[in-house]
Amino acid sequence: MPKLSVVIPIYNAQTYLREALDSVVGQTFEDLEIICVNDGSKDDSLKIVEEYAAKDNRFKIIDKPNSGYGASVNHGFDEASGEFVAIFEPDDILENNIYETLLGEAQKNNLDVVKCNFYNYWSKKNKLKRSGLIARCAKKDVFEPKDNLKMFTCHASVWAGVYRKKFLEENGIRFLETPGASFQDMSFNFKVIASSPRIKLLETPLLRYRQDNPGSSINNPGKVYCVCDEYDELTRFLESKPELKEVFNTQKLVNQYRAYAWNIQRLDRSFQNEFLQKFSDTFREFDSKGEIKKDFFDSINKKDFTLLINKPDRFFEKVVEKKSLFKNLFGAKK
């Protein structure tokens, strides 16, 4: 099977890092390059990685000043020598056969992208819960994303897949490099799916996705506009690829609407009015440009949308305060 480069972006991850690295070292697929990108950690993360590298020559360490999650993963991709790359976050845990399984599917079906399901994991309670967001999108066979748009509403879970490096490079797919930002998996995941001619999504969970790390950015309501940055990047990406925009723009708008709506609920009340105005202005502009097509309302309530662009205060009272619509459909953690 092809060589795999596993990129691990690390920032102040010492609490769970050994458990995570043990799960990489213990993989049944051994032809790995383990690229640890230390993003200016102030704890003992670098020291821990150096201990592992001294015992295992598959480790490669990149130590750099802090520049954020997206820049760290991109740097790792640039240094990767494998035909395929994977992302692994240093507070999660891999099942020992995840990469053998994913690469086996990629090789058997000649795929650029293969992803799997995962468990939500609470380590303090030792609780595992199989993700339903992935299971509902999975199909038994290889499929074309345009024929399974539900895939775009699944958990981004960029760390639960393998990606052919050449595919990413040829399609200009990279992470948005916004220092200190969050949710940078949103635009990357959408680009990957939209650009993939064929993909396979396994219903079997092969990773434990930690839910009780207080350092995760899902617990940081102060990052008000990070979601907007991701969708501005997606808008730019689709504008540069008219053939993809024609097929996937409505789905991008549906995802953007839901993401903005979810974001407004997670924000502190002092930021909600400010973000509400941004939300309203953005979709009013899309509407004025004729980008809101009829099929957009197959997924979004038209009356709520009309309130948003015309009477945002009323939209807030009717929809946001009553929490009548939104859940975190994307599950972005970092």
Provide a descriptive summary of the structure in words:
With 334 residues, this protein is an alpha/beta fold. The protein has 2 domains: 4-215, Spore Coat Polysaccharide Biosynthesis Protein SpsA, Chain A (Alpha-Beta Complex), CATH 3.90.550.10; 226-320, no CATH class. Helices cover 43% and strands 17% of the residues. The protein is built from 12 helices and 9 strands. It has helices at residues 14-25, 45-55, 69-79, 98-109, 132-135, 165-170, 185-195, 226-239, 242-266, 269-288, 302-310, 312-320; strands spanning 4-10, 32-39, 59-64, 84-87, 93-94, 113-122, 127-130, 161-164, 200-210. Strands 1, 2, 3, 4, 5, 6, 7, 8 and 9 form a 9-stranded mixed β-sheet that branches. A hairpin with a 4-residue loop joins strand 6 and strand 7. Helix 1 (14-25) runs parallel beside helix 2, helix 7 packs parallel to helix 8 and helix 9 (242-266) runs antiparallel to helix 10 (269-288). The relative contact order is 0.12. The model is unreliable at 327-334 (pLDDT under 50).
**Tally of individual domains:** 2
- Fraction in beta strands: 15-25%
Query: How many β-strand runs?
Result: 9
Low-confidence stretches: 327-334
CATH architecture of the largest domain: Alpha-Beta Complex
Give me the CATH fold name of the largest domain: Spore Coat Polysaccharide Biosynthesis Protein SpsA, Chain A
Helix content: 40-55%
Q: Give me the Rg, rounded.
A: 20 Å
CATH homolog superfamily of the largest domain:
Spore Coat Polysaccharide Biosynthesis Protein SpsA, Chain A
The first-to-last residue Cα distance is 31 Å
Please state the overall shape, judged from the principal axes of the Cα atoms.
globular
Q: Please tally the helical runs, counting DSSP H or I stretches of 4 or more residues.
A: 12
- In the CATH hierarchy, what is the class of the largest domain? Alpha Beta
Largest sheet: 9 strands, mixed
Mean pLDDT: 91
| SS class | alpha/beta
H/E element order? EHEHEHEEHEEHEHHEHHHHH
